[in-house]
Design a protein that fits this description.
Elements lengths: L12 H6 L5 H8 L11 H8 L4 H14 L3 H10 L1 H13 L1 H9 L12 H4 L3 H11 L1 E2 L3 E2 L2 H25 L4 H26 L1 H4 L2 E7 L1 H4 L9 E9 L5 H20 L10 E2 L12 E3 H10 L3 H7 L3 E5 L1 H15 L8 H14 L17 H15 L11 H10 L5 H25 L10 H10 L6 H22 L3 H5 L13 H11 L4 H12 L4 H18 L4 H15 L3 H8 L10 H9 L4 H7 L19 H14 L3 H24 L5 H31 L5 E7 L1 H4 L9 E9 L5 H19 L10 E2 L12 E3 H10 L3 H6 L4 E5 L1 H15 L7 H18 L17 H15 L11 H10 L5 H25 L10 H10 L12 H24 L7 H6 L1
Parallel strand pairs: 4-5, 4-6, 9-10, 9-11
Antiparallel strand pairs: 1-2, 3-4, 3-7, 8-9, 8-12
Helix pairs in contact: 2-4, 4-6, 4-7, 6-10, 9-10, 9-11, 10-11, 11-14, 15-17, 18-19, 19-20, 20-21, 21-23, 22-23, 25-26, 26-28, 27-28, 27-30, 28-30, 31-33, 32-33, 32-34, 33-34, 34-36, 41-42, 41-45, 42-43, 43-44, 43-45
Length: about 1000
């Protein structure tokens, strides 16, 4: 800049502050710069600067331009006399430092902003093509080439960009027009680059026809100021040229064209040309024939590729070939919604985009973040693809045009459509203004206060630019997110419910089409449920109409939306008129204490058959979902206290146990719901289920004993204890587990053994009968087959009888079974003495002999060979299969019986605790212990998930695809675009985990020198 002495401008610093300058002293010095002589005190100039987004930046840009301009007097006089130029030039300089830099380098371009002819006000693609073409034609030296041509193209591009930005900041073009002009300019630039390349490669240009298909925002005529320009290339051979030769020539031209746009010269770069949306992405050929494109899309394309093709539009090159491409591709695009898992695929892709955003940027992401531009675009595109196959009015590449069509035809509510239109325009305006500043590709809201002030002023906030901007941004994000979540579902309710006069509704066919795309197997049935829930003028129907649009989305995000919606209707029919249920639904919106209740209900009901079955037997348990502590399992002590109190008040044993079973059913629902919602891990589920079973047995035992005393009129003359066995004793029960127990009794003093035994048997049998009576509550099977002599032996023995049996007849397998014995009900002192009695059996004082180890191995091999069900897949059977529960548990139990006498930590009934103790003691390699632990956890999780989904027990993965997808979803798998949610992956992962576990079992349990080989063969 020139050297000068400051002179008075006649403008006080106070006035400069009022005019919006942030650094009044610097502004005063710049106004006093000699290059502004003659206009420095012009009030219109000061007012023009004040009106800009950043008066300081605008003034700096003006000084730099005046200093560089050869025609400075003309510039200044025009600036003073012509308001259109003043508004446009100062407006651009006040928002864009990058365009200020351009004008300082090319000051003659200020004249671009002077005229206001028709073409300038509404430039067409042809206008941009002529403008860029003229710049490449040097009147003195003829046509430009090489770097000179590339420099000329860049300067001309920014000159056109300057005029677009001027219309933008002055408000003579709205955000949609600006985006369309930017896309048209991009197309003209690609055409100019193609012309340059064709001049340099005339042979190749003569061998092929090449069309450039705009994709993404370029194809949709909604481009940003700074963006990659997404394209796809399609080529054809000219007459007499072989196809291979033509494709090679077209590839060279396409690659050269991309370099012409992205290469950095003295004048910088324009933008990258991105061809990665082509078939096979960056791994596929850059250029294909139309036939090759069609073959790929018909056979190999993924869902997201059809979503991308929705915006395909010929933008440069051979336009006739480009139009033919779009015509041939269109039928494939508009039938994409018929693909299996279409909606889950699209939703999964949106989730992946959000998850990829760095945590520190999520709240500032205009484009990709929650409540940003991509939420609107994804929702609109999803609706277009679902309904556009039957309604051609929706087939637009422009988001705003498509949104208007969706609203006009009733696919989106008018109010929602208007809100989204307003939000989209605001977010795009912010994006444009942010990028204009430095002409850099960014979608992040700035954090610097100066940048925020300029941005706020540029979009019209003048009183409190930063505060108003941030408040509007937060409000817009929230509104977009809210509408995004309900946009797809709200009109489904309108299709069956009453509408306001003048509103357009989805037809039944369109509603069914949308439900089918969402994954509902029976759209007609779903519509009937919606009609039953939402029709009418009652308060209940009104609340349902408010809630259902969101719940439909939650159901659709499950493996079985139909079952979830049906269960919700059944629950609502049962509870619909109760005040608390309606209040729970009403208060399920954001900001209410019960805000999660509706979502919890939807996800639990759609998880499978078990939870709805439990809930439908007592719908009032739905209240647990609205209680902040409702999904926290209750302690065993609390459960036993509730059950025993109820038993004590009951008039009969059957009523008492019915109450105990109803408590168990409620607690089972609590545990299932917490599990489905991710509130409990495997260990917590096992402990909670075991505690519920123990409390139920405690209540049933008390009821049976009281009933016996009432019926006989005699006092009970024996003490009775219930000993848990198996997974029950290990506090590892699953949803399908029986209660494995043994009974022990001890006559009271003065009661004969025969009388005591008769009483004990009667009470134990009555307890088992009561727990399995037909009722609405699930039965609890009490399995006593692990007692001495199994089913052939007495159901109940005295402590002395157990001692005599174990001393004389006990077999090794019985000692192994006793490893998990733990008292759970009845006389606590008797239970403790039973545990003392069996301690030497399950934890032998000298460990195991070699013969005993071999016997345990033989038993395991025989079980594997004989007990696996016929036709079962040994690689996926969770209990007896390779690396399954039995494999891991037998390893733990062998180590316990061998070493627990010396390692107290091994004296536990829990499998995982035993593995950890063995590893801690150095008896098991830490990595081996982890592999076994992972397999046990995975098998338990799968087993529980199968029960939750199917409602009945199984040790195998379901064969039904929908059920398998439900299991996968419960295990945390999500749609990947390759088929049903995690269906294949979950089985492969299970096989991989258990295969590793079986290798450890073979090494640790069977050992390298196991047997003579025959037993080992039987173990495989």
């Amino acid at each position: 800049m020139t050297t000068w002495d400051p002179v008075s401008t006649g403008v006080s610093t106070a006035r400069l502050v009022r005019l919006g300058f942030t650094d009044a002293a610097v502004a005063a010095r710049r106004l006093a710069d000699p290059v502004l002589a003659g206009i420095r005190d012009d009030s219109q100039l000061l007012e023009g600067l004040s009106a800009t987004a950043d008066p300081d930046l605008a003034l700096l840009g003006l000084v730099r331009l005046a200093e560089a301009a050869d025609d400075r007097p003309v510039l200044l006089s025009t600036l003073a006399s012509a308001k259109p130029l003043r508004d446009r030039l100062l407006g651009v300089l006040g928002v864009s430092a990058a365009l200020g830099d351009h004008l300082a380098r090319h000051p003659e371009d200020w004249r671009t902003l002077v005229t206001y002819d028709v073409q300038d006000a509404h430039p067409t693609p042809e206008y941009f093509r002529r403008t860029l073409g003229a710049a490449l034609d040097d009147r003195t030296n003829g046509t430009l080439a090489g770097d000179d041509a590339l420099d000329a193209l860049r300067v001309a591009y920014r000159r056109c960009l300057l005029s677009i930005a001027a219309r933008d900041v002055c408000g003579t073009a709205d955000v949609a027009q600006v985006a369309a002009e930017l896309a048209d300019l991009a197309g003209a630039t690609l055409d100019a680059a193609l012309d340059l390349v064709a001049r340099e490669h005339p042979v190749e240009a003569g061998q092929c026809r090449l069309a450039v298909i705009g994709m993404g925002k370029c194809g949709g005529r909604e481009l940003n100021y700074v963006s990659d320009v997404d394209v796809v290339f399609v080529a054809d051979a000219r007459p007499g040229v072989e196809e291979g030769t033509a494709i090679a020539a077209a590839s060279r031209i396409a690659a050269a064209m991309m370099r012409a746009c992205s290469h950095t010269t003295r004048e910088g770069t324009i933008w990258p040309v991105d061809a990665n949306l082509r078939p096979e992405g960056r791994n596929g050929p850059l250029v294909r024939t139309l036939t090759s494109h069609l073959a790929y899309y018909e056979r190999w394309a993924k869902t997201w590729e059809f979503q991308a093709l929705l915006k395909a539009r010929p933008v440069a090159g051979d336009m006739a070939l480009g139009r033919k491409y779009v015509e041939r591709i269109a039928p494939l695009v508009w039938t994409a919604a018929q693909r299996e898992n279409f909606v889950p695929d699209v939703q999964a892709m949106r989730r992946r985009v959000v998850e990829s955003i760095p945590h520190t940027e999520v709240e500032r992401e205009l484009k990709l973040g929650p409540g940003g531009l991509r939420d609107i675009e994804f929702a609109v595109q999803l609706l277009q693809l679902v309904h556009g196959r039957a309604d051609s009015s929706l087939r637009s590449g422009s988001t705003l045009e498509a949104l208007a069509a969706l609203s006009a035809e009733g696919y989106v509510g008018r109010a929602d459509g208007a809100s989204l239109d307003e939000a989209y325009r605001f977010l795009r305006l912010l994006e444009h203004r942010i990028q204009l500043h430095r002409l850099r590709r960014t979608h992040l809201l700035p954090t610097d206060s100066v940048d925020l002030r300029r941005l706020g002023r540029s979009v019209g906030f003048r009183a409190n630019p930063v505060g108003e901007l941030e408040a509007t941004w937060r409000r817009t994000r929230h509104e977009v997110r809210r509408l995004h979540e309900k946009l797809f579902y709200r009109p489904l309710l309108d299709a069956v419910a009453r509408l306001q006069p003048g509103e357009t509704r989805l037809t039944a066919e369109a509603a069914a089409q949308r439900l089918e795309a969402l994954g509902y197997a029976d759209p007609a049935g779903a519509l009937r449920h919606l009609e039953a829930l939402a029709s009418g003028v009652s308060r209940r129907a009104s609340i349902q109409r408010t809630l259902l649009p969101v719940m439909l989305g939650w159901f659709a995000d499950s493996a079985d939306p139909d079952a979830g919606l049906l269960a919700f209707r059944q629950i609502s029919d049962a509870l619909g008129n109760t005040h608390w249920y309606l209040r729970l639904l009403r208060d399920s919106g954001a900001g209410h204490a019960g805000g999660a209740a509706a979502e919890n209900m939807a996800r639990v009901l759609a998880s499978g058959r078990l939870a709805p079955d439990l809930l439908l037997r007592a719908p009032e348990a739905v209240a647990l979902l609205g209680d902040p502590d409702g999904l926290r399992p209750r302690s065993r002590a609390a459960l036993e206290s509730e059950v025993l109190a109820a038993v004590g008040r009951a008039p009969s044993a059957e009523v008492a146990v019915q109450i105990a079973r109803s408590v168990r059913r409620r607690e089972l629902f609590r545990i299932v719901a917490a599990d489905v919602l991710g509130r409990l891990d495997v260990d917590e589920v096992g402990r909670a289920l075991s505690d519920v079973t123990a409390a139920t047995l405690t209540g049933a035992l008390r009821a049976a004993a009281d009933e016996y005393a009432r019926q006989t009129g005699k006092a009970i003359g024996t003490r009775l204890a219930v000993i848990a066995m198996g997974r029950f004793g290990g506090h590892e029960q699953g949803y399908a587990s029986d209660a494995d127990v043994v009974f022990v009794h001890e006559p009271e003093e003065g009661t004969g053994e025969e009388v005591a035994a008769k009483q004990a048997h009667a009470i134990a049998n009555e307890m088992r009968r009561l727990l399995q009576l037909p009722a609405t509550d699930p039965p609890l099977v009490v399995d006593a087959d692990l007692r001495p002599e199994g089913r052939q032996g007495p159901l109940v023995r005295t402590l002395a009888s157990y001692r005599a049996y174990y001393e004389r007849w006990s077999k090794l397998w019985e000692s192994q079974a006793l490893l998990r014995a733990a008292p759970v009900a009845g006389d606590a002192d008797l239970g403790a003495r039973f545990v003392d009695l069996i301690a030497p059996l399950r934890w032998p004082t000298a460990g195991l002999t070699d013969n005993e180890v071999r016997e345990i191995r033989r038993m395991k091999a025989r079980i594997e060979a004989e007990r696996l069900p016929r036709g079962a897949d040994p690689t996926t059977h969770t209990k007896l299969g390779r690396g399954g529960l039995a494999d891991v548990e037998w390893v733990a139990q062998l180590l316990q019986m061998k070493h627990a006498h010396a390692v107290p930590a091994l004296r536990t009934t829990g499998t995982r605790e035993a593995l950890a103790a063995a590893a801690e003691a150095g008896l098991l390699d830490a990595q081996d212990a982890k592999v076994l632990d992972d397999a046990w956890l995975e098998a338990t999780r799968v087993r529980n998930a199968v029960m939750v989904v199917r409602g009945r027990p199984s040790d195998q993965f379901p064969s039904d695809v929908r059920e398998l997808a439900g299991v996968a979803r419960l295990l945390g798998y999500r749609a990947t675009g390759a088929g049903p949610v995690g269906a294949g992956t979950v089985i492969e992962d299970y096989r991989r985990i258990t295969r590793h576990a079986r290798a450890v079992v073979d090494r640790v349990f069977y050992g390298e020198t196991y047997g003579d080989g025959n037993e080992a063969a039987g173990s495989r």
